Amino acid sequence: MTDEPDRDTELLLDLLQRMREIRLFEDTVKEWFSSGLVRGSTHLGQGQEAVSVGVTAALQHGDTTTCTYRGHATVLAQGAPLDKSFGEILGKAEGLCGGKGGSMHLTDFSVGALGSFAIVGAHLPISAGAAWAAQLLGTRAVSVSFFGDGAANIGTFHETLNMASVWSLPVVFIIENNLYGEYSPIAVTTANTVLIDRAPGYAMPGVRVDGNDLMAIREVAMTAVERARGGEGPTLIEAMTYRQSGHSRADPATYRPEGELDAWLARDPILLLEQRLAEGGVSETRLADVARAAAENVRSAADRALSWPEPDPTSRFDDMWVNA
Ligand SMILES: Cc1ncc(C[n+]2csc(CCOP(=O)(O)OP(=O)(O)O)c2C)c(N)n1
Ligand SMILES: [Mg+2]
After folding, report:
1. Considering the domain boundaries, does residue 319 fall inside one?
2. How far is it, in rounded angstroms, from Cα 197 to Cα 94?
3. How far is CA 17 from CA 8, 12, 24, 300, in A?
């Protein structure tokens, strides 16, 4: 046992804290929606945090991401501030997008988070576009697109992967395979449920990885990002994971077979990383400190966002149209 972990352990503790913050961020969002503080819907990614945190840990400043309506984790993992992300969901002017995007559209260009998209598959070409811009400008930036298993059946998946491969674009495609589309198990909608089997069809490497194992997903992402940055083209990564709640806040997820959720809860990504760190000699006190710091950060960010004033109603049409 030691309270002075090495640098790798320190990094993993940082990533653990980020996963805990994202988990608590979404607990708070869930609470706010249930108590009527926020209108509309929200799509939680609880259980899938290791994918976003592990992949973004392999990125550097200037790299970009796109993600789905289940995108809180990705945008936060890339570094969007907790308070402004809360503010966005609460519809406050201080929110990431002035409060006009909400839960499904968190976006923060300042950290390279190019957007969360509600149209399934819409953002794959946008990541390819960012990668093409990086290639043309010679910036060596890499772009990453996160999307679901359902999105792999959308036409843009085929068009984007083909073009990205033909042009050797610096892009990484991450399928967050959580075994379900909106309410349908993957086998009902997908002829071959091993999605990386499609990678050879686009002449790119395909890697299937345990998406709940932060260290494993980070390693696979590092290889893919290095390959993209080195001009060798795209990689398709299939991260096997599970959303612990329903598709959206309106979905009780009663269609799941008995025992399935429990089996995945036993493999919760936060739990798994804590177990690994404890096996590596990190003390319980240190892990508790991380949990406490995460809780404090989330609580103070939520309090700040709640204290911000409601936006001025006269600003509701600002930023909607280009003023020619
Ligand atoms: C083009 C399009 N078709 C249908 C929908 C409705 N819809 C919203 S989410 C979803 C399921 C997508 O599943 P998946 O890609 O696996 O992502 P997950 O929700 O599991 O993260 C569907 C069909 C949509 N938003 N866009
Ligand atoms: Mg899915």
Report:
1. no
2. 44
3. 14, 9, 10, 15
Helix axes 7-34, 82-89, angle to 10 degrees: 20
Number of domain units in the chain: 1
Number of other residues whose CB lies within 10 A of the CB of residue 106: 26
Pick the atom of ligand 1 nearest to 247's CA: 19
Ligand 1 atom closest to Cα of 119? 26
Asked if residue 2 is part of any domain, the answer here is: no
**Please, what is the average pLDDT of the chain?**
96
Domain that includes residue 118, residue range:
7-306
Residue 151 Cβ < 6 Å to ligand 1: yes
CATH number at residue 239: 3.40.50.970
Tokens found for residue 279: 């096996």
> Each residue of 172-225: pLDDT tens digit?
999 999 999 999 999 999 999 999 999 999 999 999 999 999 999 999 999 999
Q: What is the pTM of this model?
A: 0.97
Nearest to 218 by CA among 144, 133, 131: 144
Nearest CA to ligand 1 atom 20: 181
User: What token pair was written down for 158?
Assistant: 């085929």
Enter the tokens of residue 278: 């404890």
> Does residue 47 fall inside a structural domain?
yes
Report DSSP state, residue 311.
P
Helices 284-307 and 269-279, packing angle to 10 deg: 140
In a domain, 220, yes or no: yes
Reported in sequence order, the residue ranges of 196-301 that DSSP labels E, i.e. its strands, are 206-210, 235-240
